[in-house]
Fold each of these.
Amino acid sequence: MIEMQGVYKTYPNGVTALNGLDVRIQQGEFVYVVGPSGAGKSTFTKLIFREEKPSKGSIHINDLDLAAMKERRIPKLRRNIGVVYQDFRLLPRLTVYENVAFALEVIEERPAEIKTRVMDVLEQVRLKNKARFIPDELSGGEQQRVSIARAIANRPRILIADEPTGNLDPETSWEIMHILEEINQTGTTILMATHNREVVNRVRKRVIAIEDGVIVRDERRGDYGYED
Ligand code: ADP
Ligand code: ADP
């Protein structure tokens, strides 16, 4: 579960990105986070991953209290959270296989286990046949699927996707959505920050709208709600 109470975030330059945010997300939910640029969506997701600390308020991720958490516990938190970015962030000189394996090597997973896991997740994103390719040899959608495979290799309880379809054409975006839904069906919580109106309106999920650092709308099967 993700729980935030009275969360404020003011950056060192004085910009207040979150202005008293309260939210509770149960394990296994699929949540779209929408809102205009600069509303605080990225800050919201960065707090969950402990990339940023709140200036005020409490954040609990499962049994971890993020405000009180010691720095040395951050790796343990991050092992339970996968992150997917709009621009994929793959390592260009590594193959698909190596990009995914790398995520497991850094946490010192056993080599035999790494092999099985990498092939399992590549199968999940339907890229087993491209394990030896490098990112440049793949389409945008395929690169995003590699980045999803990397994010779930560790079997995280939470997957954060920050505009995962932002660089993709509509058809490829549906493919990515389909894969995210399959991951969600295995019990993984999905938080997806997005500007993709077609996706949000067609694949109905909980919608949290953030504006000026507060939640202005939270609907169980909401729509996108903006004209952009
Ligand atoms: P969104 O993801 O909805 O576009 P952000 O969370 O990125 O919103 O940004 C919210 C506000 O915080 C914006 O005004 C942005 O300029 C500011 N901001 C974001 N990150 C930083 C940072 N590292 N330092 C200072 N200001 C920041
Ligand atoms: P899209 O237009 O959907 O982004 P592309 O035209 O880039 O897709 O790629 C179509 C297919 O060709 C993909 O399966 C991709 O993996 C493969 N492909 C693209 N570029 C290369 C390359 N340089 N070497 C090998 N395969 C490639």
Note: The pocket of adenosine-5'-diphosphate (ligand 2) is lined by residues 137-142 (CB under 6 Å).
Amino acid sequence: MSQKTTLRQFLKANEANLPAPLSELDHLLHSIARTAKTVHAHVTRAAITDLYGTAGSSNIQGEEQQKLDVLANTLFVTTFRESNLVCVVGSEEEEEIILMDNNDAEYVVAMDPLDGSSNIDVNVSIGTIFSVFKRKSEKGTKPKVEDVLQKGTEQLIGGYVLYGTATAFVFTTGNGVHIFTYDPKGGEFLLTHTNLEIVKDSKTYSCNEGGFLGFTEGVKKYIDFCKEEGDYKARYIGSLVADFHRNMLKGGIFIYPSTQKTPKGKLRLLYECNPLAFIAEQAGGKAYDGRVRIMEIEPESLHQRTTYYVGSANMVDKALELIETHE
Ligand code: AHG
Ligand code: MN
Ligand code: MN
Ligand code: MN
């Protein structure tokens, strides 16, 4: 087996292509990786340590928080506070921005600490999704929500962790998409894929068709198109990170459209759609809301939702074409 590259070695070798000082990005990414290892450990032992089930609280999304939602949120917020590099965090699990008590820190994080919560108790892959930005407000001042409400095009880092059969740490800093796989034996994340590219065409579509009757005409036409082709596969795990990761590696389109229950879509722009859009585009894929490029959307609120079409470029184009023709 060839000697694998560590995260530190990779960042050092690619220092010239980093969007911020190596020492800071190294510290930030290792902080995230270290916390991902802790979440990995909790996720794998959750049934034994009674960490399945609900925490007895709800979040701003109107969702019942799972114990692991709350734990992952606490772990990552603590990590960002202790990193001394982050001034403010926006999290799915907290209504308002979370100040890191360090107004001199330059970085901002938007995160979904645990994605796919409905799958925690049934031993199906879940994840963490995050974006890193430079603050907009003056260094030394109290950070503001505008520091988090930044367009996807402003991201320095877009990344996710997939707690699956293996724990994978996937991110882009704007120079390609790279996958580091956790080696429990050595305790390190090791480089297992560089400059990932998503194929332009594939035959896998990923959509919760339970909402089909409430889909708009164009989306119905696209789903029918996939079925009429006869050789498409429908794959839907119900954890965005897992569905997205499969499509990144094998090609495919993930769709969360407008439904009767979620007319503006279900997924959150800032800490689900933007980071994955950055990764998709860096791998040669596309991410749209059905009309506009996800990363161009000007955020108005922390938890705003959007419709989402992401994955293989030609498949997204086909969906957009049918939406444009029929809506
Ligand atoms: P989260 O667990 O962070 O709230 O996100 C859940 C999301 C996403 O992971 C997944 O793609 C989607 O919800 C599934 O929604 P449906 O169950 O409505 O298909
Ligand atoms: Mn949730
Ligand atoms: Mn999520
Ligand atoms: Mn979540």
Note: Residues 7-193 form a domain with the Fructose-1,6-Bisphosphatase; Chain A, domain 1 fold (CATH 3.30.540.10).
